[in-house]
Amino acid sequence: MKLVAVSAGLSSPSSTRLLADRLAEATRAGLDGDVEVRVVELRDLAVDIANNMVTGFPSAALREVIDAVTEADGIIAVTPVFTASYSGLFKSFFDVIENTALTGKPVLIAATGGTARHSLVLEHALRPMFAYLRAIVAPTAVYAASEDWGGSGDAITDTLPSRIERAGRDLAGLMSGLSGTAKRGEDEVVPFAEQLAALRKS
Amino acid sequence: MQFGIFTVGDVTPDPTTGREPTENERIKAMTAIALKAEEVGLDVFATGEHHNPPFVPSSPTTMLGWIAAKTEKLILSTSTTLITTNDPVKIAEDFAMLQHLADGRVDLMMGRGNTGPVYPWFGKDIRQGIPLAIENYALLHKLWREDVVDWEGRFRTPLQGFTSTPRPLDGVAPFVWHGSIRSPEIAEQAAYYGDGFFANNIFWPRDHFKRLIDLYRERFAFYGHGTPDQAIVGAGGQFFMRKNSQDAVREFRPYFDNAPVYGHGPSMEEFTRETPLVVGSPQEVIEKTLSYRQTYGDYQRQLFLVDHAGLPLKTVLEQLDLLGEILPTLRAEFAKGRPDTVPDAPTHAALVAKRDADLTDPVSA
Question: Where does the source fall among the domains of life (chain A) (predicted)?
Answer without folding.
Answer: Bacteria
